[in-house]
């Protein structure tokens, strides 16, 4: 077991739908690592509005400001109306400009694309997600896409720094600069400038629509993908399908002063409360969180335990062709950690 004595204060956002179930499972697993946590739990979204009259209570903002660290379950975002995305609100509030999603197969889980190992680095605060929309006249809407030199440079710098640190071989900047010549053109200009400082890393550029075709044809040609906000949102979901879907892949929102680790899948209200949801996505996000707080030994042990459970195939959830429930899966990971300790 870990010998750390530090207690990590973490803001916990259980979410809604299956969120509380998968969050509870992951918290149990994390506490079994021996790492010490002090959880501050807050509701967000519709549940928070019912209780506090706010979709993101000020107490939640204050908790993240204090702790600089949060673990977040899925929160429902209304489509075509309703309240603003909680995810986007948190990213803007804390300037979490990096959306980081590693895409890698779990052992023992058969997919159409074995051996995938991709890094998605998505700009997280600009682009179409600034939310600048306007009704000009009835039936005519405008929506602004914002790309800045500052935002493009810092996300490119982060991507290349990560690639160098982790010995990745290639970075591709993904764009639509053939059409969006100023905005996507600026994104490319910034990426090219940063690439000059990393001669050991092969730099490439692909147009977004061609990238999607190339990915489904041969994902192995890519290594690290650097994308503006909207393109990154789409491509990261596409790539998740290579390894089994959004229920398996982690997500991290990173900034200079704070970090939020989250499940990137939906809240699945149709299966909420049935103890059948798969907590793997949030668990893998929690493993990223352990690395972030310098608990690498616990992170590695937990990753090994998770992979052992998938390799043995005895206690998997229904979405990955098993029969176990959420709690039983968590129990199996905890038991596997004890074996690997």
UniProtKB/TrEMBL annotation:
It is an enzyme of class 1 (oxidoreductase). Its EC number is 1.1.1.41. It comes from Silvibacterium bohemicum. Residues 9-333 form the Isopropylmalate dehydrogenase-like domain. Keywords: Magnesium, Metal-binding, NAD, Oxidoreductase, Transit peptide. GO terms for molecular function: isocitrate dehydrogenase (NAD+) activity; magnesium ion binding; NAD binding. Its cofactor is Mg(2+); Mn(2+). SMART domains: Iso_dh. This is Isocitrate dehydrogenase (NAD+). Belongs to the isocitrate and isopropylmalate dehydrogenases family. GO terms for biological process: isocitrate metabolic process; tricarboxylic acid cycle. Coiled coil: none annotated. SUPFAM superfamilies: Isocitrate/Isopropylmalate dehydrogenase-like.
């Amino acid at each position: 077991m870990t010998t750390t004595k530090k207690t990590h204060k973490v803001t916990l956002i259980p979410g809604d739908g299956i969120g509380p179930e998968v969050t509870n499972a992951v918290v149990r697993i994390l506490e079994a690592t021996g790492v010490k946590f002090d959880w501050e739990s807050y509701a967000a979204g519709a549940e928070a509005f019912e209780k506090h009259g706010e979709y993101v209570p000020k107490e939640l903002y204050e908790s993240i400001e204090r702790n600089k660290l949060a673990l977040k379950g899925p929160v429902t975002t209304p489509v075509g109306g309703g309240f603003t995305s909680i995810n986007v609100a948190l990213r803007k509030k804390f300037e979490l400009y990096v959306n980081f999603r590693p895409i890698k197969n779990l052992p023992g889980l058969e997919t159409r694309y074995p051996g995938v190992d991709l890094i998605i680095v998505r700009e997280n605060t600009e682009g179409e997600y600034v939310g600048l929309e306007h009704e000009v006249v009835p039936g005519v809407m405008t929506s602004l896409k914002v790309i800045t030199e500052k935002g493009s440079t810092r996300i490119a710098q982060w991507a290349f720094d990560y690639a160098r640190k982790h010995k990745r071989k290639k970075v591709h900047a993904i764009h639509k600069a053939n059409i969006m010549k100023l905005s996507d053109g600026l994104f490319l200009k910034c990426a090219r400038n940063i690439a000059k400082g990393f001669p050991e890393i092969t730099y490439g550029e692909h147009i977004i629509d061609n990238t999607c075709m190339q990915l489904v044809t041969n994902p192995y040609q890519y290594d690290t993908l650097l994308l503006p906000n909207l393109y990154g949102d789409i491509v990261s979901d596409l790539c998740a399908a290579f390894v089994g879907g959004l229920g398996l892949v982690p997500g991290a929102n990173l900034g200079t002063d704070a970090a939020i680790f989250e499940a990137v899948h939906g809240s699945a209200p149709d299966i909420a409360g049935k103890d059948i949801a798969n907590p793997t996505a949030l668990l893998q996000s929690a493993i990223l969180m352990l690395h972030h707080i310098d608990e690498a030994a616990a992170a590695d042990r937990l990753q090994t335990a998770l992979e052992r459970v998938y390799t043995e195939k005895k206690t998997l959830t229904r979405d990955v062709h098993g029969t176990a429930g959420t709690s039983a899966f968590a129990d199996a990971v905890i038991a596997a950690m004890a074996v690997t300790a």
